[in-house]
Amino acid sequence: MKLRKITQLLTEIAPLSLQESYDNAGLIVGKNNWEISGILVCLDATEEVLDEAMENNCNLVIAHHPIVFKGLKQFNGKNYVERVVIKAIKNDIAIYAIHTNLDNVLHNGVNQKIAEKLGLSGLEILQRRPSDLLKLVTYVPKDNLKEVREALFDAGGGHIGNYDKCSFSSMGTGTFRAGENADPHVGKKGNMHQESESRLELVLPRHKQVSVVNALLKAHPYEEVAYDLLELQNKSTLTGAGVVGELPEALKKDDFLAHLKTSMQAHVVKYTHSERDVIKRVAVCGGSGSFLIHAARSSGADAYVTSDIKYHEFFDGENDLMICDIGHYESEQFTIELLGDFLSEKIPNFAVIFTKTVTNPVRYFY
Questions:
Q1: Least buried of 38, 72, 110, 201, by fewest C-beta within 10 Å?
Q2: What's the chain's Rg over C-alpha atoms?
Q3: Domain locations in the chain?
Q4: Would you identify the CATH topology of the domain 133-231?
């Protein structure tokens, strides 16, 4: 299977346009025309992970964290980043990272996986992203409306939140005159023509713009297709940082902490005092989530589960929000399961292996 096909599947659930500006998600090592024999899914692409990939005949490593965050000027093997890149190139192993773009999607995202482990339901994005939505407006002869509309839906247009095939149409009259070099679908060259047309409108994510416009041009009967693409200011309900949801039933604080520790396979939970008696509404953010503490409080959450909280940031709970730091690796470890299950479903009968290498650099002394 070509690497290109696999990376296209990954961008379906986590478009690269959703990554943060500091990130380096995408294909880090390798070429899209490489033939892939097997996939190893991991959290971190370390030297040990590459050795494991070679032992299992996997020449593609899909990692959550990018091995390269900034430019490398020398490849002397003086640190683990350089050594991993050298080993990958030397052994023709592709490395693909799917990081903050996977953090920033609700469906099949990192935070949904955490919420699933905790048993949360009614999930909402904690901090919505500015819109990456566009509105397509075009004009279609009434007899071709259904065909064109379905083509746009198939190309990825018309999704709003949990709904698909969303559009609006209204009838009107279009006018045009075909020139001598034209090949009009209706009307005669040199004559003014009036045609009953539908104004068709639908929204689409920015990363689907090319495929949707190409579908429009292919399905539309006119030689010259009139259309507009308008930027929208709506905030997305399906993309953004963190999620918030509710437990099936309220738990006493100690019972919630025990549930959290067990469900997330955490070695330890660092947490703050809260004056609330029970925990019901829970916000989560995989990885470093201190930037969402105030959003978690504003959401009405009783507890906020994340990692990498600094000492003074714990005070931001204000004794009202129980901030729970379970560790960076612990908060994201189930991303391996998430990606592995997704790929196994999309490309059955293909070798997709979950890493057995624990890449957590943190150790605990009890």
A1: 72
A2: 25
A3: 3-101+334-354, 110-129+240-326, 133-231
A4: Alpha-Beta Plaits (3.30.70)
The structure's pTM equals: 0.85
Q: pLDDT digits over 310-350, tens only?
A: 999 999 999 999 999 999 999 999 999 999 999 999 999 99
The sign of the CA dihedral 296, 23, 343, 52 is: negative
Alpha helix ranges (H) inside 14-74: 47-55
Closest to 133 measured CA to CA, from 107, 160, 104, 167: 160
Chain centroid to CA 160: 16
Residue 177 pairs with which residues in a beta bridge? 192
Supply φ then ψ for residue 16, to 5 degrees: -65, -25
Non-local CB neighbours of 11 within 8 Å, separated by 6+ positions:
207
User: Is residue 204 a contact partner of residue 212, using CB atoms and an 8 Å limit?
Assistant: yes
CATH topology match: 3-101+334-354 vs 110-129+240-326: yes
What is the CATH number assigned to the segment(s) 3-101+334-354? 3.40.1390.30
Protein fold of 110-129+240-326: 3.40.1390
> Cα separation of 319 and 205, whole Å?
40
pLDDT at 252: 97
